[in-house]
Amino acid sequence: MEAERERLCAEGRPFKRAKPLRVWLNPAHGPALLDLPVELAWATTWEQEANEWIGPVLGLPALPVVYWPKEPARPKREPGGLFWKTRTLADYAAGRPFAWVDDQITMADRRWCAARHPAPTLLQPIHPARGLAAVDLAALGLWARLNQQQDPAPAEDVMP
User: Fold this and answer.
1) Predicted structure pTM score
2) What are phi and psi of 59, to 5 degrees?
3) Neighbouring-strand partners of residue 101
4) Higher confidence at residue 107 or residue 153?
5) Which comes out higher in pLDDT, residue 74 or 52?
6) Which in 25, 84, 99, 120 has the greatest CB count within 10 A?
7) Would the pLDDT of 153 be above 50?
């Protein structure tokens, strides 16, 4: 896995054997994700490799990828408990509503987004041993329907 090798090099451990990651994939998740009224993107340290290794198993087309800062080595948490992915994902969203599913999301990430991101966000934590579940997909679907971008009404149609 090239992304894992790059991570080890960035951490100063270029000769450490990369431990394979065990990933449990549910092919039913692909169609369920594609049914959501959202723009999907990979926000994983797998980066582009998610399109090569995960997407085909789930039946997903190639998706846009969020690329993470490489240097300096990323801390797992910033001061105050903010997850290192949070700022980059908010930047990627560029002021648009966004939903994020991850097993590392905490209240610190939710508070940061609520205070600094100008649009609605859903930060949906998942249990790392359980993975994406029906309840998570339902939460994503409801949030997406409630936050779909709509063209503003013309001024003459706005009620006083």
Assistant:
1) 0.78
2) 80, 25
3) 124
4) 107
5) 52
6) 99
7) no
